[in-house]
Specification:
275 residues, Uridine Diphospho-n-acetylenolpyruvylglucosamine Reductase, domain 3
């Protein structure tokens, strides 16, 4: 099977630690890590895996996931340079799924196209942002997509056209700075995390509930609750996925006991779990 994959994909690594490919810096090895550089190689790779009953996982920017310590069975796929285009089109941008969202936001600003300012400072890829419908400051990214093209027969996003509106670039950059400065002041942007860990329950903020439960700074192993924003869990450098999961469970139990609210995870937990 590896010989067949190597005929399609140039870049393959075996037993690749997923900690190298996630913003959390956590995660056991994927059996196979493959980079698909273009649509044809992606199509052929996924087809051969499906025909042979081999599981695969499409990795975006790795910014909102927690990979378990035992890693990923099967193939982890990352989209390569052929999916990174960011081009001006009428009333918007044509964007490849692997294009970094920060680069898309900057391109929009330079072109005088408004609508993406809220995404300033959001890490990850555009495809990943569209998959999870990334949001900030009451704005969502998916409503901006007037067209999303997927790999035939799958949910894998290949590219999208984002509909934006014309605006003075100086006005756009002013909004971007305002949003980014607020995030910088209120979120641990430069520490190892996966963003907000829990979804906000109706009419409440998860971070506020966690803070009111007195859990800022709470630690399990190498993972701790951020002192700056309580809905962020930080990897101090040596955290395991089990540390994060145990800390999440502790948070859920404490918040449920105090407020009667069960917090639901917002990050995606993937990979093989311990029995």
């Amino acid at each position: 099977m590896l010989d067949k994959i190597r005929k399609i994909i140039d870049s393959i690594k075996l037993n690749e630690p997923m900690s190298k490919h996630t913003s959390f810096g956590i995660g056991g090895p994927a059996d196979v890590f493959a980079v698909a550089e273009d649509e044809e190689s992606l199509k052929r790779l996924t087809q051969i895996l499906e025909d042979n009953g081999i599981d695969y996982f499409l990795l975006g920017g790795g910014t909102n996931i927690l990979v378990n310590d035992k890693g990923i069975r099967g193939v982890a796929i990352r989209l390569g340079r052929g999916f990174e285009k960011v081009e001006r089109v009428e009333n918007g941008l044509a964007v490849g799924a692997a294009a970094k969202l920060v680069k898309v936001v900057d391109k929009a600003q330079r072109e005088g196209l408004s609508g993406l300012e809220f995404a300033s400072g959001i890490p990850g890829t555009t495809g990943g942002a569209l998959m999870v419908n990334a949001s900030a400051f009451g704005h969502l990214i998916r409503p901006l997509a007037r067209r999303i093209r997927r790999l035939k027969g799958s949910k894998i996003i290949l590219e999208a056209e984002l509909e934006l509106r014309r605006e003075d670039p100086s006005v756009i950059v002013s909004k971007m700075r305002e949003y980014f400065e607020y995030k910088r002041e209120t979120q641990p942007l430069f520490l190892k995390s996966a963003g907000c860990v829990f979804r906000n329950p109706p009419n409440r903020f998860a971070g506020q509930l966690i803070q009111e439960a007195g859990l800022k700074g709470e630690r399990v192993g190498g993972a701790y609750v951020s002192f700056k924003h309580a809905n962020f869990i930080i990897n101090r450098g040596d955290a395991k996925a089990t540390d994060v999961l145990n800390l999440m469970e502790l948070i859920q139990e404490k918040v449920k006991g105090l407020f009667g609210i069960l917090l639901e995870p917002e990050i995606n937990i993937i990979g093989e779990t311990f029995p």
